[in-house]
Amino acid sequence: MAPARPPAARLAALIVMMVTLGVAVPVGAATAAPPGGLRAAAAPDGDEEGGTPALRAQLDAASKGYLDAKRALDTSVQRQQQLATKLKATEAEMTVRNGKVGEIAGVAYRTGRLSTVSALLNTNTPEGFMDRAAALDVVAANEDRVLRDLHATRDEANRTRTALDGEIREQRKQVEVMAKRKEQAERALTVATSKPRTTAADTSSNRGTSTANAEPAPRNSDGSWPSESCSINDPTPASGCITPRTLHALNQAKAAGFTRYVSCHRSGGSGEHPKGRACDFAAQKGGFGGIASGGDKTYGNNLAAYFIRNSDRLAVLYVIWFRQIWLPSSGWKSYSGGNGDPSSDHTNHVHLSVY
Q1: d(CA 36, CA 310)
Q2: Which residue ranges are recorded for the region named Disordered (predicted)?
Q3: Distance CA 221, CA 354 (A)
């Protein structure tokens, strides 16, 4: 969450006090801020994300649960497709084996299935006896193998059908979990937005466009997101630490052309910033200023669209921009938990939280 700009009067009063006390004012202090008087540094102990810690905890849990269930659903659907392909091949194989058994049965019907003893007695020489015995062994072994193969194929088909039924049950379960997580997030937002606003709601569109595809963040072998700690030095001026996944999202956004001021880690407050799992992307070139408009608003719109387009690749939990929040479960929803300033209303920056 970006900080609000301090009033000019407060800065002027501070300078007057310093002069009165005989403290030297550093040369160039007035030009140390970003262009246009924008403030670039995040409040070290601020909690200006908008909403409440309880709301952010609900959104975090709901989005994580939704993404986990969606991953399990996607994995189950993939397994179902593999099993369906396997079952089709097994059934084709079983058709062939049924045909071979049918051939054996047909031969037995036409020849009357002479007994082994009868076949051996119909030989006139010892050599013929041995040859006939060997031939009978081969026939018996072949028939036995054909029957065993048929039974094995039928068993495999039954196991595959059972596994398919299990995947269908798993998918129904995960769909129910996703629906509950969606309801959890929307219920939390409903409670938060039921409170009176101190400023009028913005009705202008925050929809942008993006065609850039991000490189996917690393996943576990089962498709889940690995657990990560705040272990990477934050490369933004905010200092502190961020997770490897947050750094990946930050670098991917820069590679896509979104290179304006960014602040990630925050040592105080609630939400994902102190955990290194969130960044604030300023809409204006120099930092966090007033309400974005014109080209700055378009920049924010397109940046939000980029994160949404790549939400699955970047493990996006949610995006907040211009008094609205995008959730993987629900899309865009009203987010009016701010305090009426550009920072907590998210009208001067795009907030990104990742898994």
Answers
A1: 32
A2: 179-231
A3: 19
Spatial distance between the Cα atoms of 58 and 60, rounded to a whole number of angstroms: 5
Distance CA 175, CA 70 (A): 8
Cβ–Cβ < 8 Å for 289, 266 = no
For tokens 């898994």, the residue is 355
From residue 247, alpha-carbon distances to 44, 236, 272, 352 in Å are 20, 10, 14, 12
pLDDT digits over 317-336, tens only? 999 999 999 999 999 999 87
| Token representation of residue 344 | 């907590």
Residue type at 185 in one-letter notation: A
**pTM of the full structure:** 0.65
CB 118 within 8 A of CB 170: no
Convert the pLDDT of each residue in 272-305 to its tens digit. Answer: 999 999 999 999 998 999 999 999 999 999 999 9
